[in-house]
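Appendix B. Extra example for self-study. Work through it before the problem class; the solution is given directly after the inputs so you can check yourself.
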Amino acid sequence: MGGREATMVLMDENGKRCDGRTVDEPRRIMIKAGGLKNADGSAYIEFGDNKILVGVFGPRDVHPKHMSNTDTGILRVRYHMEPFSVGERKNPAPSRREIEISKVIKEALEPAVMLDKFPRTAVDVFIEVLQADGGTRCAALTAASVALADAGIPMRDMVAAIAAGKVADTVILDVNNEEDQAGQADMPIGYMPNLEKITLLQLDGVLTPEEYKKCVQVGVDGCKLVYELQKKALNDKYFGNSGD
Amino acid sequence: MADRRKYVIPGDVVTTGPFRPEQNVILDGNKIISTTIGISEIYDDSVRVIPLTGKYIPKINDLVIGKVNSHTSLSWELDINSCYVGFLPAQDVFGRDFSAHADELATKLKTGDLVAARIANFDRTRDPLVSISDRDLGKIDSGDLVEISPSKVPRLIGKKGSMIQMIEEATDAAITIGQNGWVVVSCESPEGLLKAKKAIQMVNEQAHVANLTDQVKEMLDKKGES
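Solution. Structure tokens for the complete assembly:
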């Protein structure tokens, strides 16, 4: 993705990052539950400059029929980036990257969603990235989890996600696009805060064992912050502002 | 709100201790965790969550309103607002002497017709079997269909039918509530019909609000004066 300055300073002498944040400060996050009338459940998230819309349908009939499972329901996730979501127009056809992200989001949601209650059905999650700015998979996973809860799909826990990483030899929270491109490591983490279980952990880059542990810890703490916003979004929609 | 009832979202710990998990909760160690958005209720020995969203899951003996989707030579397929399709066998309508050759299913029920039916059989392995061989069941000839969330049906009925009785009395409407969230309202006067539909929508939108009965009553009374 063009436009990156080769000489960009990712961390200044005061410990401030290229967008002015401190090392453990996430970007501005806004989550809204609902919004799509024709979907069973939906959510919209703004995560820094990322803008992502998620629609959930189901449980519903499986087509094609041979994909159905007589023991349990199936979860299908489609992560898609709009052609206008990035600087240079993207081909609307699913890319290798989008297929991979669809898969990792599906696998990150599966431990939370209780599909065994709906044998022979499917739950479809459609993720549309309207504007991308690094960390879309975490933002998409966070919003998908809210949309699933909004659809009333039984879940063991919510899944909150954020990326930790390393730039200028420092472990940071919430890697943005510049830091992702020019930084040393990027570690997206999906986490179930009440069950205290990690459902997604990827790592791109090189970390020492100590840095790895620190990254996981920073990421998990970040997920807890994201979870509070997920809770707020659902409380706002269903209980006004009076949610406990 | 009292301690026994609180708002929960998936993953929230409703309570801990030796309780029996009932609807929409799971047991994790000694914690009882909600699996859906709703209002938790703690009884003497059990815990449950009344959901505020979600699809209809058929239960045997439920009264549902179905919409005829299509038919084969032996049965009709009904849309019952669920993740499963309801099957209404032709024998149920034509009687025991039904013959697949002689009887044409479309003469009795056509695509788009509404049917009040009861879930006769349902388990994990099969689609729900519905039946109309009972009193007050069968094709619905008149009335307007109102769709609400299936999870809000208990609220619309109210304690011992208090809410629905109140709406029926105030508007002179006849209301058939399907457990699947489809409600048929019929009323001779257009104003009554409008008022009843508005009251049902109001319950649907504000199901979580305390003393909703009073608010609906107020709305019904106010409209009556104007």
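Self-check: The CA atoms of residues 37 and 97 of chain A lie 30 Å apart. If your reasoning did not lead you there, revisit section 3.
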